[in-house]
Recover the amino acids of this structure.
């Protein structure tokens, strides 16, 4: 069993492309490496897609290397065109900096005090434009930039000048972090490969030093769906945007074919245990999914929330028990007494995207109230449906929501 962090990352499925595999493996074995990953603050929370990079950072940190978590308070003013067919929505400066603070707080939750936290707004926003073009811009070939995969989709639809600058600014981030902290490795998603190479090249030209870059695969399910997406939208890491119970359910409901891959990337379980769990078949594979859901939820929300979600999920399937962690909506008893349409309430609590979708699910036999299938699209719920646990709504096989009441 290897203890070189590069080989560990390879074995667990974190490595897509690297600039120099042997040089990187040797460097990791020889010295403490300072490395960085950048996150543009386009929202006030990270999602599961970001968690791939966070898990890699945690593996690196556990191996004794030093992470820099960089938020792009400067680059977000531009917008990364990589992999996009349309220009990103431009946020205000205040929104960007508020999001940056929220992301840094999340990163600290994972990495603690033994990491460096930076915001590229600290060096990008006050750059002298002409001086920057003379000193940095001269190293970039527009022809080479336009041939990069990250720009191809946008080029076909119309790449504007502000987006063209993004690669230069990201490369400059790497140079700045090299100068400030001795950072010699940049990591990122595979759609960032050309941007990472630009940073490696810039440091070579400016400092006559060879640095390295490594990308992670962009994860998709075996069904071809991008990891971290649900019917309701992104799988957020912030419990205010996605409750721990829903987060737990996302993992426990994964495709059987994805279990091994997800255990490798989103848990710290040893590979021997992952191989054992992945070998389970049929009904037993459900137990492997429960382990995945518990471990993944524990990393993001803590052990107490993972246990609560686990108990609530068991209670929902077996009836009774502790349902306190299940997503719950409180409604007025008076409103319930008057009767609420099933289509209306399922759309209202987010079990379906719309009443139309709820109607289709009723027609397909996928809507349940207190474990009983709803067969009529004009069915209603009322106070007669209240049980000691409230009213339990279910869409499909595995998505639950609980209603409780209060007096108006």
């Amino acid at each position: 069993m290897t203890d070189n962090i590069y080989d560990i990352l390879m074995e667990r499925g974190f490595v897509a492309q690297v600039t120099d595999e042997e040089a990187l493996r040797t460097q990791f074995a020889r010295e403490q490496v300072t490395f960085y990953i950048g996150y543009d603050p386009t929202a006030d929370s990270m999602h599961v897609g970001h968690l791939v990079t966070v898990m890699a950072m945690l593996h690196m940190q556990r191996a004794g290397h030093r992470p820099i978590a960089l938020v792009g308070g400067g680059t977000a003013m531009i917008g990364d065109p990589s992999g996009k067919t349309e220009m990103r929505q431009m946020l205000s400066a205040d929104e960007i900096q508020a999001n940056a603070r929220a992301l840094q707080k999340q990163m600290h939750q994972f990495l603690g005090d033994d990491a460096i936290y930076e915001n590229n707004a600290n060096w990008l926003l006050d750059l002298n434009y002409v001086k920057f073009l003379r000193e940095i811009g001269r190293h970039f070939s527009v022809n080479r930039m336009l041939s990069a995969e990250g720009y191809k989709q946008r080029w076909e639809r119309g790449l504007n000048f502000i987006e063209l600058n993004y690669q230069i600014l990201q490369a400059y981030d790497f140079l700045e972090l090299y100068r400030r902290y001795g950072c010699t490795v940049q990591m990122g998603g595979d759609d960032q490969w050309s941007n990472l190479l630009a940073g490696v090249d810039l440091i070579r030209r400016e400092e006559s030093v060879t640095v390295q870059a490594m990308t992670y695969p962009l994860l998709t399910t075996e069904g071809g769906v991008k990891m971290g997406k649900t019917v309701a939208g992104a799988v957020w890491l912030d419990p205010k945007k996605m409750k721990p119970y829903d987060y737990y359910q996302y993992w426990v409901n994964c495709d059987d074919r994805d279990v091994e891959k997800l255990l490798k990337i989103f848990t710290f379980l040893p590979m021997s245990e992952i191989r054992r769990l992945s070998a389970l078949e049929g009904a037993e594979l459900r137990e492997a999914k429960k382990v995945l859901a518990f471990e993944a939820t524990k990393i993001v929300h803590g052990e107490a929330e993972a246990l609560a979600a686990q108990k609530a999920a068991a209670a929902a399937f077996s009836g009774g028990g502790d349902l306190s962690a299940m997503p719950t909506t409180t409604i007025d008893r008076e409103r319930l007494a008057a009767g609420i349409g099933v289509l209306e309430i399922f759309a209202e609590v987010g079990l379906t995207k719309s009443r139309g979708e709820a109607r289709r699910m009723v027609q397909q036999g996928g809507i349940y109230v207190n474990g009983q299938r709803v067969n009529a699209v004009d069915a209603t719920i009322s106070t007669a449906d209240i049980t000691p646990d409230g009213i339990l709504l279910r869409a499909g096989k595995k998505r639950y929501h609980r209603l409780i009441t209060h007096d108006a």
Remarks:
- The first strand starts at residue 17 and ends at 18.
- The mean pLDDT is 87.
